[in-house]
Amino acid sequence: MPFHPKRGLKQAMKNGELRTGLFVGSSSPQVAEAAALAGLDYIIVDLEHGDRTDVASAAELIRAAEIAGTPAIVRVPGNNVDDIAGVLDHGAIGICVPHVRTREDAERAVSYARYAPVGVRAMSPYVRAAKYVGAGWDEYWQTANEEIIVMVIVEDRIAMRNLDEIASVPGLDVIWIGVGDLSQDLGMPFQMGDPAMVDSVQRGLDAAKRNGVISFTTAPASPVIDRETRSAQIRNLHDQGFAMLAWVDTPMITASIAELKAAVDV
After folding, report:
1. Known catalytic residue: 49?
2. Catalytic residue among 4, 49, 90, 99
3. Strands 19-24 and 149-154
4. Cα–Cα distance between 107 and 246 in angstroms, integer?
5. Is there a contact between 253 and 223 (Cβ–Cβ < 8 Å)?
6. 1: pLDDT confidence band, cut at 50, 70 and 90?
C-alpha cells in the first residue's frame, strides 16, 4: 500500500504525458475504489463541493483508492494550513486549492504543502502517510517535497490579471482555469462558448506553458457517444495542452442511469 508519495505522476504530466482521473464529489469510498480498479491514474476527493466531507472522511476515500494502487489528490475547501496538512498526513499525493487570486495566495498554498526549507508543513512521523509508527518516515519525507502535487484554481477576473504571477511561483505544479466561477464573475454564467471564456482558457494554457506548469481541465463524459468520438475529444484536449484530465462522478452516474432508463422507455 503506497503510504509514501507515488513517484512519477507529476513528472509524467510535466513531460506532456496524459493522465486521467475522477473527481469524487459523492464522498463514496466505493466510487473511489471503483475508479482506481478501472485503471484511472488518480482520484480527486472534493471537499469544496460535493458532500463537503471533512478531513477524516476524505481519509476513507484516500484509503479506498490506495487499496487499488491509485493515489488521491484532495480539493480542500480553502487555502488554510490545517486542511492541507490534514489531508497530506492522511496520505494524499496532492492538494487542489480553490479561489487563488494572487501570487501570495499561490505561495501560501505551496508553503503549506511542503516541508522546510521550502515550506512550513509540520513534521510528524506518527501519521498515516508514515505508517503511524514512523516506519516509512525516511522514505516519505525525503520524497514528499518533490512528489506532492500543488494545484490551484484560477477562477475570477482578479486571478486572471495575475495569471503569470501565479503560474511562476516556485513549487506550483498545476493550474486549473475554473470556468464555472470565472464565467459567473464575467457576467456570463456557464456560457462556455463565449469568446471571453474561450480566450480565458487559452490564456491559462499559455501561462502554464510559459512557466512549465501542468494544465488541468474536466472532461465531457456523455454515456451516449461512441468510443471513437470520445477518444477524439480527449485527444483534442491533450493537443490543446491539457496533460491532466478528470471526469466527475455524479453527472457520470446520473447520465448513465438516465441512458439506461431511456433504453427501457423506447
Report:
1. yes
2. 49
3. unpaired
4. 25
5. no
6. very low
